Each structure stands twice: as C-alpha cells, then as structure tokens.
Amino acid sequence: MIASGVNAPAGASAPDYTKLREYLIATVSQDLGADDLPPEMRKQALQDRLEEALARTKLTLSGSIRNRLLRDILDEITGYGPLQPLLDDPDITEIMVNGPKKVYVEKKGLLEKTNIVFENNLHILKIIDRIVSPLGRHIDSDSPMVDARLPDGSRVNAIVPPCAVDGASLTIRKFRKEKLTIAQLIEFNSLTQGMADFLRACVLGRLNIIISGGTGSGKTTFLNVLSGFIPE
Fold first, then answer.
1. Per-residue pLDDT for 25 more than 70?
2. What is the pTM of this model?
3. Is-cis flag, bond preceding 151, omega within 30?
4. Residue where a domain stops, chosen among 28, 43, 78
5. If DSSP codes are grouped into helix, strand and coil, which group holds residue 34?
6. CA Rg value for the chain
7. Do residues 154 and 176 lie in contact, with contact meaning Cβ atoms separated by under 8 Å?
8. Is the pLDDT higher at 135 or at 200?
9. Which of the four pLDDT bands, split at 50, 70 and 90, describes residue 4?
C-alpha cells in the first residue's frame, strides 16, 4: 500500500491533524495572496511562512508528523494535492481516482489500491480544475469530460457528473523519462530480433503501420520505439 494524502499519519489524531492542516493552509494562502513572486521563489516563501505559522501555534509535534504536515500543505498549495507523491514516484505509470477513497495506481506493471484519500468530491474537482485551468480548459456539468496534459507530458482524462454517476473521476497516464529502445524490448521478450528487423524495414520503406491495443498495453511506448527508426 502507498501511504499519503490528507489522512492523518500514525501518532496523530485525525480531526486535530485535519483542523491544523486547514488552519495553516488558510493562514499562509492569505499571507501569500498579495505577493507576486515567481514560482521558484514562491515555494520557498511558502515554506518559510508555514514554519512561522506553525511556530505561532506553540504545538509540539514529532519530527515525522511535522514533516508530513508541511509536505502535505506544500503539495496542496503548489502541487496537485494528494496526487503529488504519486506523480513524483518514477515507478508509477498510471494513477486512477475513482472517488475520494478509491485511488489506484499501476506500479511496475501491477495494479494496487493506495490509502491516499481526498477530503471529498469537491477536493477532487479542485485538483482537476488546477490541472486544466492553466491550459485554458474548463470542466463542469455542461462540459463534463476533458483531456489534457501535465507540464511533464503526462496524459490526463477527467470526467465529472452527469457523465460520472458516482462523482468525479480522474486518470493520469505517466511516461518514462528514459525512452525504451528496440534492444530493450527484445531483452524483455516483447518481440524477437526478426520482428524488430522487419519493423525497421517497414519504417524505412515508409509503409503504413497501425498500432492497436488495449489501455496500458504499450501503444505509445511502441510508437516511440518505432519513431527511432526514422532517418534524420
């Protein structure tokens, strides 16, 4: 299981942790509202003000709870909330949010449920809006489905009611930073050397090629590999 999200860490009371988190978010958000800082300076300013606001509460927190609290708040304000740790994990290739307490990932080829949670459906909608708004897109009951891309190229699909009958859902397909090569596909027994040679000849011969398969079967990965055969 992958642990993160807005649920309280071990050793902390869930209601108290949530109240403290909400108080600090409200405090630092108000403080930063008037500042016109570039992104790289904004995060450091936020970190500093969080430390100050937490010190003013005069609460004694363990190191692990304190670090987790600060990270959660930074992710909520500057990142994609509970999803940020999943986006930062290079081994995760797909993130599926089917409800506030139904967050799944595909990691190293295996599907698993995480214990990441959102506060409610409105929290999911807030993160979806944070993803699509910078792209000039919007999602609501009149336009309940949107496809978008994160700055790193990850593909995003979001659906909200009335198309999503059980509440908002979100899927993010991530891509490896290091592209696979044809030699690696042969090493993984995804195809043989003879198949690779044939496909190379097809690309060089400028033949039409259809790449077809189910969700997560590797179509984009395979297309990237084939594009490596295209001459300069």
1. yes
2. 0.70
3. no
4. 78
5. coil
6. 22
7. no
8. 200
9. very low
Between CA 125 and CA 41 the distance in angstroms is 27
Q: Which CATH number goes with the domain that contains 91? A: 3.30.450.370
User: Please, what is the average pLDDT of the chain?
Assistant: 84
Q: Give the torsion sign (CA, 197, 199, 200, 205).
A: positive
- DSSP reduced 3-state for 94: strand
CA distances from 112 to 34, 115, 130, 209 (A): 42, 10, 25, 34
Residues 98/168, Cβ–Cβ less than 8 Å: no
Q: How far apart are CA 40 and CA 212, in angstroms?
A: 41
Sign (positive/negative) of CA torsion 115, 117, 121, 126? negative
Does 1 have pLDDT greater than 60? no
Contact 83, 96 (CB under 8 A): no
11 backbone φψ class: left, alpha, beta (φ>0; ψ -120 to 50): left
**Residue 2 CA from chain centroid, whole number:** 14
* Containing structural domain, residue 209: 182-227
| Within-domain flag for 3 | no
